[in-house]
Amino acid sequence: MKQKIDLNCDMGEGFGVWEMGNDLALLDCIDSTNIACGWHAGDPERMKKLVSAALQKQILIGAHPSLPDLVGFGRREMSITPNDAYNFVLYQAGALQAFVHAQGGKLHHVKPHGAFYNQAARDLNLARAIAQAVKDLGSDIILYGLAGSCFVEAANQIGIPLWQEVFADRRYTSEGYLVPRTQAGALIESEDEAAAQAIRMAQKGEVVALDGSIVKVKADTLCIHGDSPTALDFAKKIKASL
């Protein structure tokens, strides 16, 4: 039985005067935050303020780099090379790392966003380039990546720590990938169902795929999405259930 699981949340995903999510309240429900770095959402002022709030609440701080797709919120796949992937991570995570260092903190992890994350989960060359960028950012920085995916082998090859990530509010394919958001049934909207999935992954190390098959997962960290109107209630439900 899993005794402890990290709860992480994607945050800072507003832009300029446009707000998304209730970031400050969500910080009270999680253990680590993934802060948008400006390419799918976020901006310098938002990054600075969220870093400050996270440090005050002793929340682990991570960078949430994306494909360069502000219009599509980073959810549209792009044809990129491993060199692109390396540059994207170093550029964006390096910016957030500067804000963290300026306020006396340390960058804890990197978690790619959206399509960037899903492409690398299936492509070892992209995952390896991301892992190399994380290693080059500094010692002991952790990569958050989809449990059982190419991130696992990439982290082992490059020699960096990896926390395997699971999702309470997403359904899985029989291969262990996330069902694309464009497909019916990809999102779990019931708080009770999501909480039950989270508990099963944490306690039994397994999840029921969309087709009914059982997929084994290693749950080091569990993602709570912060970009929905019900995110705070959802986070409280998951935390209380776990």
At CATH level 3, the topology of the domain at 6-165 and 220-226 is TIM Barrel
- Provide the helix percentage: 25-40%
Provide the spatial order of strands within the biggest beta sheet. 1-2-3-4-5-6-9
Average pLDDT, rounded to a whole number, is 93
CATH architecture of the domain at 6-165 and 220-226: Alpha-Beta Barrel
Number of helices: 8
Give the N-terminus to C-terminus distance in angstroms.
Answer: 12 Å
Please summarize the sheet with the most strands: 7 strands, parallel, barrel
Class by helix and strand content?
Answer: alpha/beta
Strand content: 15-25%
Low-confidence stretches: none
Explain this structure:
The chain has 242 residues and is an alpha/beta fold. It has a domain at 6-165 and 220-226: Glycoside hydrolase/deacetylase (TIM Barrel, Alpha-Beta Barrel), CATH 3.20.20. 39% of the residues lie in helices and 17% in strands. The protein contains eight helices and nine strands. The chain has helices at residues 23-26, 44-56, 82-102, 114-122, 124-137, 150-158, 191-204, 231-241; strands at 6-11, 32-36, 60-64, 109-110, 142-146, 162-167, 206-208, 214-216, 221-225. The strands form two sheets. The chain has a seven-stranded parallel β-barrel with strand order 1-2-3-4-5-6-9, surrounded by six helices. A two-stranded antiparallel sheet has the order 7-8. Strand 1 (6-11), helix 1 and strand 2 (32-36) form a beta-alpha-beta unit. Helix 5 crosses helix 6 (150-158). 45% of the residues are buried.
